[in-house]
Amino acid sequence: MKHIIIIVFSIFLFATQGNAQDAKTILQRLDENLSSTNRVVKSEMTIHGKRRSRTITSKSYTVGTEKSFTIYLSPARDAGTKMLKLNNQLWIYSPSTDRIIQISGHLLHQSVMGSDLSYEDMMDDRKLTEVYDATLEGSDTLQGRDVYIIKLTARVDDIAYHAQKLWVDTQRYVPLKEELYAKSGQLLKRVTLSDIQKIEGRWFPMKMNYKDMLKQGDGTDFTITDIKFNQNIPAYQFTKAALKE
Amino acid sequence: MLAFKLAIRNLLGAGLRTWLNVGVLSFAFVVIIFYNGLIDGWNRQGIKDTMEWEIGSGQFWTPGFDRYDPYTYTDAHQSVSDEVKQLIHQQKATPVLITRGTIYPQGRMQSVILRGVDPHQTILKLPTSAFDNPNDVTPAIIGKRMAQSARLQKGDKVLLRWRDKNGTFDAREITISAIFNCDVPPADNGLIYLPLATLQAMTGMENQASILIMSKDNQIEALQGWEYKSKDFLLKDFKELIKAKKGGGVVLQGLLLLIALLAIFDTQVLSIFRRQKEIGTYIALGMTRWQVVGIFTVEGAMHSILASLLGAAYGIPLFWFLNQKGITFGSPDVGITIAETIYPYYSLGLIVTTMLLVIISATIVSYIPARKISRMNPTEALRGKVQ
Asked: In angstroms, rounded to a whole number, what is the distance separating the alpha carbons of residues B353 and B14?
C-alpha cells in the first residue's frame, strides 16, 4: 500500500522559495519536496471497520508516477497478493487463484482491499497543475504549523474530483490536509497527513488518514514504517512476470 | 358393456376396500391439480406483474447494455432519435436512463442503481406522478424493499453520490417522494427512480436513454441503433424458475400417485387370488381368457373413474373457494417475483391431463396383475385351486 501514499504524494508538484508566493509556486515546491527518482516503501494500512479494524502491511517499489509494484506481506489472507501499475494500467495477482487480473474500466471505481481508497484514486497520476487551476485562498494554522490554503478547480472534464483544497506547511512544503469535493461543492473525502519527518534531506509525512466524509467510521490510516529514496530497483520488478514470482 | 356392469357391481360390492382405494387416489388427483394450479397461478400473476412493473411488452437496449452487469450501465446509453421520440409521444415507448450511484442513509454506504423515468409515462405502474411534488427539489421514488434495506421513509432526505458522464463525482440530497409496493423484486431491490430529465442533467447525459420499454400493443421489433429484447427473453429467468418449481413438484406428486396406484395393484392381486372360482366360471361360460383379463382391468381402472368423481365432489368447491379467496403467503421477500396472495389457475388442459394421467396409470397397474388370468388353467380355477 506504500505506493498509494507515493502516488498521492506525487500528485502534488512543487518547488521554490520565498514568503509571498502564488499557488502555482507553492505547488511546485511541494512537488519538489515529495518527488524522487524512485523509492522503496514499507507501510501499514489500517482499515477501520464498523466492528473491528484490520491492518495490512506491504512493500512498494515506485519509479516516478508511472511504475509501481506492491507486494502485500500480511495478514496471512492477503499475503502474497501483488499489484503492478504501469502508466494507466493495473494488474493484480492473487496467490489463492494463481491468476493475474487486469483491473480496468469501471472496476477501477472499486475500493482497494475494503479501504476508503479506490483503485482510481491510486491510478490518477496526472500532475495537479495539469488538471487543476490553483488559487491561494489564504493562510491558517494547522497542527501547530503555519499553512497556505490552496483551492484547486478542475480545468479538465475527465477527473474524479471537481475541486480540492490543500493545506500546505509554509516552511516544510508538505501538505497537512487535503479535501476532495464533488461538483456540487459537497465534501467527499479528507486526507490528513502527519508525523512529518526529515528523510534524506526532504520533509516527508509518515502518516496519512484517508476518510470518506459521507460515511461513518474512522477511515483508513497509512503509516510509513520505512522509506528509502533513489534506490537501485531492477527493471524486471515492473513486469508481469514478477507478479507470479 | 358387460365388463363395466360387472366392474361396477364388484367394486361397490367390495365396500370399504374400494372406497379406501378411491379416497387415496382422489386425494392424489386433487393434490396434483391443486399444486399445478398454484404454480400456474403464480406464473400468470408473475408474468403480469413483471410486465406491468419492469419490462413492459418488450424492450430495446443500447448495444453493450447488460441488465445483469452494472458495470455496463455507465457507458451503455445513447441519444433518443426523432423516430423514438415519436414513439414516446404516442405512449408506445418510454425511455429509461440507467446508471450507478451510492447513497449514505444514516452514514451507511449503500450502492444503488439509478433509473431515470419519464414522470408522465403510463407503460409501467410506477407511481411516477409523485415526481410532480413542487416541494421536492430532487424527488425520488423507491420500492418497499429498498425502503426497508436503506431504512428510508416517505419524505426522508438522503445524500446521493454519483458520477457524471466524464466520471466526475457529484452529490446532492434527494427526497423520497413515494414508496411503492410491488411483487417484482427486480423492479425494487437496490433501485432509486428519479425523473428522467433530472438524472439526465445530473449525469450530463441530456436526451440520452439506456433502454426503451415498450407498451402492451407494441408490434415493433426493430429500431435503428437499438437491440430488441422480446418479452420471452426478458421473462426467461422467471419462466425457468417456474419450470424448476414444477419439476420439483413432480417428485411429490409422483410419490403420492405411486402410493395410490400401489393400493390398486395390491387390490387387484388380492382379487385375482381370491376370485379364482369366479374366473373359472367366466371361462366355463364361454368367455375367453383375455375377456376375463379385460373385466378385471376395467374393474381396477374404474377406481380412477370413481376417484375422479369423488375428487370432483370435494375438489371443485375447494378449488372454487381458493380461486376466489386466493392463498396468502404474507410478504415473502425471497428475491423472486411472487405475489402476496396467489390465485390458483386451473386450466381445462390441466384437469384433462391430470385425469388422463390418473386413469391411464390406474389402468396399467390394474392390467399388470390381471395378465396372470391368461395363464390360468380353467379347470383348476373352477376348483379354486391355488395356481
From this structure: 29
